[in-house]
Automatic annotation (TrEMBL):
Belongs to the aldehyde dehydrogenase family. This is Aldehyde dehydrogenase family protein. InterPro entries: Ald_DH/histidinol_DH, Ald_DH_C, Ald_DH_CS_CYS, Ald_DH_CS_GLU, Ald_DH_N, Aldehyde_DH_dom. It comes from Cupriavidus necator. It comes from the Bacteria. The active site is at 247. One of its GO terms (molecular function) is oxidoreductase activity, acting on the aldehyde or oxo group of donors, NAD or NADP as acceptor. Residues 12-473 form the Aldehyde dehydrogenase domain. Pfam families: Aldedh (PF00171). SUPFAM superfamilies: ALDH-like (SSF53720).
Length: 478
C-alpha cells in the first residue's frame, strides 16, 4: 500500500526511513484506509517555516481572490459530498447519512467564510479630541496551528481552516491520527481550488510528537479535544504569549420536566445521547428527569433503544456505527464497570457486539439509580453511554445540571415558557437547547463552552474573527 506523505509548501513529502502509522476502518479492522508518514519535529518546523514565508503574500491577496478560492473549495465539497462522505463514514465510523451531512456542513462553512472575506472591515470612530480621526482595522494574526479530533474530521477542520484563510492567515493542521485520509482529501480539494503553496500545510502524527512540535513557533493555536491536553497547550501558549482557542469536553445535561412532551423528550435524549455513537462533545450524557415522569421516560427510552440498529457505517440500515477504536471501546467498557461499582443500575445495553466484519461495536448503555456525584456523571465517557438522574422538581434539576466542571451544551424539555426562559438564562453552558437535542449546531452562530469546556474566543460565524484577527486602532490628525 502507498504511504501518504505530509503536505508542506505545496508538496506531498515523504522522507526515507520515516515512521508511519496505519488508518483502519472501525467498521472493519481488515479494511486499511491508508498508511501515513509521521511528521517529526523537524518536518513540523519546515511546515511552520513554509507557512511563515507564504503568509504575507496571502494576506495581501485581494479579498475578492481569497473569497473565490474559498468558494471553489465549498463548491467541490458540495459536488463530491457522496464520494467524500463515504470516506468520512469508512474512516470515521459514522453512518453514511452522517458522513455525507458532515461534508455538506464543511461546504457550507467554506461558502460562509467566502462571504466573510469580503465583509471583514473596521470602523471610523470620532475622537474625543478635536481635529483627530480614529480608524480601526482587523489584521491577520499570522501563522495559526490547528489541532483537530476524529469525531468530526472534515467539519471541525473546515471551521478552523476557512476563517483562518479568509482573514489572511496561513495554517498548519495536525488532524487526528484516526482520520488522516479525510484531512488529506480536504487538502487536495484546497490545492485544486488555488490555495497557494505554503498557505495551508498538513502534518500527521500523534499528539506527543507532532502536536507538541506544532505548539512552538506559531502566532496562534486552535485546539479541539480533551481537557487535559487543552490545559497543557494553554500553558505552552501562555509561556510563548500567543493566543489560544480551546474547545474541550462536556458532561452535558438534558432536563426533562413533568410537563414535557414525553415522546419528543425521548427522541431528544435518544438522539443526543446515542447517535454518532455518543462521540460528540455536545452529547447528552446526563438525563435529569423529574420524579413524576421518571419511570415512564425510562421505559419509553429503553423501548426506543431496542429499535436501533448498530452496524457497519456504510450499511444503509445502520442507525449507529462503531466506536472509533479499541482503546476508546475499552475505556467505555471500564466506565460501565465503574457505574456498577458505584451502585448504579445498568438497565439497557452496554454489551459488546459481533458483526459480520470485525469492528468496535457495542450496544448503547443506559444507567438509572445514579447520583450526580458519581464518576459516571462527572467524567466524560465519550461514547453511547448515558445515565438518568432522578430529581424532585425544576429547581433541583437546574442545580444538578450546573453541578459539573463542564459547561458546553445543555438542554431542557418542557412546555413551560417560564421554565424554558429561566433555564436559558441560568444554565452554565455555552449552548442552551429548548426541546431539542443537546447536539446539533448551525455554522453561522458562535460555538464555545464555559468552565472546563472552553477557553478563549468562540468558534464559527462572524465571531471567528475575534480569534483569527487582531484589532489595530489608528489615530490620524486632520
Amino acid at each position: 500500500m502507498s504511504i501518504y506523505g505530509n503536505y508542506i509548501n505545496g508538496e506531498w513529502v515523504t522522507k526515507s526511513h520515516q515512521s508511519t502509522f496505519a488508518s483502519v476502518s472501525p467498521s472493519d479492522t481488515g479494511d486499511q484506509v491508508g498508511e501515513f508518514s509521521i511528521a517529526d519535529e523537524q518536518q513540523v518546523k519546515e511546515a511552520i517555516a513554509a507557512a511563515r514565508a507564504a503568509q504575507p503574500s496571502w494576506a495581501s491577496t485581494p479579498i475578492q481572490a481569497r473569497s473565490e478560492i474559498l468558494l471553489k473549495i465549498g463548491l467541490e465539497l458540495g459536488e463530491r459530498k457522496a464520494e467524500i462522505g463515504k470516506l468520512v463514514s469508512r474512516e470515521g465510523g459514522k453512518t453514511l447519512a452522517d458522513g455525507v451531512a458532515e461534508v455538506v456542513r464543511a461546504s457550507q462553512v467554506f461558502h460562509f467564510f467566502a462571504g466573510e472575506t469580503l465583509r471583514c472591515g473596521g470602523e471610523a470612530i470620532p475622537s474625543t479630541r478635536p481635529g483627530i480621526g480614529v480608524l480601526t482595522s482587523r489584521e491577520p494574526v499570522g501563522v495559526v496551528g490547528l489541532i483537530t479530533p476524529w469525531n468530526f474530521p472534515i467539519a471541525i477542520a473546515s471551521w478552523k481552516i476557512a476563517p483562518a484563510l479568509a482573514f489572511g492567515n496561513s495554517v498548519v493542521l495536525k488532524p487526528s491520527e484516526e482520520t488522516p485520509a479525510i484531512a488529506a482529501e480536504l487538502f487536495r480539494v484546497m490545492a485544486r481550488a488555488g490555495v497557494p503553496a505554503g498557505v495551508a500545510n498538513l502534518v500527521n502524527g500523534p499528539g506527543h510528537i507532532t502536536g507538541s512540535a506544532l505548539a512552538q513557533g506559531i502566532d496562534a493555536l486552535s485546539f479541539t479535544g480533551s481537557v487535559p491536553t487543552g490545559r497543557k497547550l494553554a500553558l505552552a501558549a501562555s509561556e510563548q504569549m500567543i493566543r489560544i482557542q480551546l474547545e474541550l469536553g462536556g458532561k452535558n445535561p438534558l432536563v426533562i420536566l413533568d410537563d414535557a412532551d414525553l415522546p419528543a423528550a425521548v427522541e431528544c435524549a435518544l438522539n443526543g445521547a446515542f447517535f454518532s455513537a455518543g462521540q460528540r462533545c455536545t452529547a447528552s450524557s446526563r438525563l435529569i428527569v423529574t420524579e413524576r415522569v421518571h419511570d415512564q421516560f425510562v421505559d419509553a427510552l429503553r423501548t426506543r433503544m431496542r429499535s436501533l440498529n448498530i452496524g457497519h457505517a456504510l450499511d444503509k440500515d445502520t442507525h449507529i456505527g462503531p466506536i472509533i477504536n479499541q482503546r476508546q471501546l475499552d475505556m467505555i467498557q471500564r466506565y460501565i464497570g465503574v457505574g456498577k461499582s458505584e451502585g448504579a443500575e445498568l438497565v439497557e445495553g452496554g454489551q459488546l457486539l459481533e458483526r459480520r466484519n470485525p469492528g468496535f461495536y457495542m450496544q448503547p448503555a443506559l444507567f438509572i439509580s445514579t447520583r450526580n456525584d458519581m464518576r459516571i456523571n462527572q467524567e466524560e465517557v465519550f461514547g453511547p453511554f448515558a445515565s438518568v438522574i432522578r430529581v424532585k422538581d425544576y429547581d433541583e434539576a437546574l442545580s444538578t445540571a450546573n453541578d459539573t466542571e463542564f459547561g458546553l451544551s445543555a438542554g431542557i424539555c418542557t412546555t413551560s415558557l417560564k421554565y424554558a426562559n429561566h433555564f436559558r438564562m441560568h444554565i452554565q453552558s455555552g449552548l442552551a437547547m429548548v426541546n431539542l437535542p443537546t447536539a446539533g449546531l448551525d455554522y453561522h452562530v458562535p460555538l464555545g463552552g464555559v468552565k472546563s469546556s472552553g477557553y478563549g474566543p468562540s468558534e464559527q460565524g462572524k465571531y471567528a474573527a475575534d480569534f483569527y484577527t487582531h484589532l489595530k486602532t489608528a489615530y490620524i490628525a486632520n
